[in-house]
Each structure stands twice: as C-alpha cells, then as structure tokens.
User: What shape does this take?
Amino acid sequence: MSRQDRRTQGRRRAVRARQKAAAREREALERRFVGRLAWRRELEQLVSARGAAPEPRHRWFPYRQGFAPALVRRFLEQAERPPGPVLDPFAGSGTTAIECARQGVAAIGVEAIPELAAIGAAALLPPAAARLPPPPAGPEQQLGALAARLHEPAHRAALLIALARSVRGDGTPRRHLPPLGERLRRCWEVIAEDLAAESLRARAWMLAGDARRLPLRAASCGALLTSPPYLGRFEYARLAAPFAALAGARASPGSGPQLPAARHADAPAAGPPPHPAAAEACARLWEGGRRRAARVVAGYVRGLAQALAEAARVLVPAAPAWIVLGGAFVHEVYVPADLIAAELAERAGFRLEGIEVARALSASGGRRLGGLARVRPRESVLRLVRLNGR
Assistant: This one.
C-alpha cells in the first residue's frame, strides 16, 4: 500500500470514528430497542386521519394530524372496559373523545387550541342540537358581524370548520374558495345530518388546556390514548392560523401550543433536554449552526417529559396507555422521538409493553447512524401500562 493510500485510509477511519462518536447515544438507544420493535402494517391506515373522512361526527373536520376512529375502536377492544374515562391530552379535533362516546365509553379530551376543542365539543352534542335553525349567513357578511350572531355551540363549530377549510391539510392556503356564507351553510348541513342520525352512548368532554398541566384530579382517568405533536413534521401554528381571524370577534384564551413542535415554533427557554439521545441531537444541531432548531428540539423533549408525568399522575394504577408518535430528521439530524418517549414514559411511572411500528416516515432507504445503516424515522404506537405506587 502506498503512503497516499495509507493517508486516505487513515482519514476515512478518522471520519468514521467522529461519526460514531457524534451518534453514540442515539445508536445505543436504537440498539436497546431493536428487538422490541414489531412492525404492524395493518396499523398504517389507522394512524392516519384519512380513515375519519366517511364516519359521522368525525367527518366534520378531517384533522390531518389525527388518527382514524378505527384505532380508538382497536384500543377499546384490547383495553376491555376501563375503570374510568379514556384520556387524550393531545386531543386535536376530538377523535378519541368522540369515538369513545359513540362506543359507550366515557372520555376526556384536552386540547391547547381552544377552537379545535370547540369543534370536538360540538361533535359531542345530543341529537336535539340538530333541530336548531340554520346559522344566519350571507355571502357578503363580514366575519366579525357573523361570529357575533352565532351563540349556539353547533353554529360556532360550523363557522370554525368553514374557516379551517380555507387551508389544506399541510397548512397552505386554498385558492378559489366559495364565499364564507356558502361554506358555513355546507358545514351546517353535514353537522345537522350527523347529529340527527345517532345518539352518543356515553358522556365525553372536550376541554381547552395544556397537556403539561392537566385540569384533572390525580387517579381520575382509566386509560390513555393520544398522539402528541410530531417534531418538525407539521406546521401546527399555520394549521390553526385561520382561527386567528376570529381574534377580534371573540376571546380565545390559552391558545399557546402544548409542545413547541412546529419547524418554525418560537424557541423555548435554553437548557438541555432530559434524555441523552435528545441532548446529543441538540448538540449536533448546535454545532451545525442550527441553534434555533436545537432549542426547539430541547423544548419539545422537555415538554414531552412533563406531559408524560402529568398523564401518569391522572391515571389509575394498571391503566392501559397507547401513544402514537413519530421520529424525525431535523435539518439532517436524526431524532428518534418514539424511543425517547418510551424511556421518558418508563421514568414517569409506566411499564413499556411493546412498540408497534406502523410505517416509516421517510421515503428514502435510510441513513447511517454510527454503526447502524439505513436508519429511518418511524411512526410507532407505544403500548404502556401505568405502574402501581408511583
């Protein structure tokens, strides 16, 4: 071997050593769980909100960041009869609460965006609400004047859904929309039809609140099914932007995000995240000049740890819990959010029963992570049980 070849080989070894050192914690985390990941292709359709489109009450607002009502039914079948209401602390438009009520199981949804909570609450109304007269609207009416005339929760929900339909599922604006009054009329027709068609079999509630500080008593819930925001995958703030049009018409208290998940979320306070793999990812982002992204990731993991601790506080011992969560590449830096959440849950007082992988979130063949090849972010269902005595 020539001297030049030896130098080239030495440089390559040095590069591989640096790459392994830069991914040591995340690689170790992947290796700890590699034997516990069970791929379940049948879950792929259930972790997507596309399955909600044809179902009564769910079809009002097909929130792209939710999951299918069929996942709720699958959870209830395996959880048997929970000893208290099913909790969803990241409720979105209320899929868990609505479907539990349809299946005869009490539920509580908590959502940080009050307008989403209002949509979910309207879907929990009794059939009598369908007998309301249509909401007053005209194609030329101003939004503020229109909102001021809507006093019924079902009417307000119709307006919120009409506003939400001004953006696509990824938060980008739609073009060539019908007038607001026409959209409101169409939304009301669907709402009234579904309310009249079926009665809910159990009570359920949708509350505006923060998953990190739940407005619930300790040991007051019998099960948990939820999906926290996905780190860096969706523009949650932009998805809620149409609701801001009502800010001058009615108050919207407590509309801050539960977790700083969006790519362009305001950077949270500085500080290391409470998990070594997340801290390592933040360090790589910081070294690469992505300091804002590093702060977002750190705040996201801190918020996730707080939300898991709160969930453990309000669940009864032995309560089943499913958490749907996906990992991400954040500016080319791999963040295994599902596995980080699994270990944070164990610290909070849960026992991990298993991790069912629904799908890979990257279309590529994957990337190298230390000594691992072809690592891709996953969308997983963490199956947990609340432990006793913590």
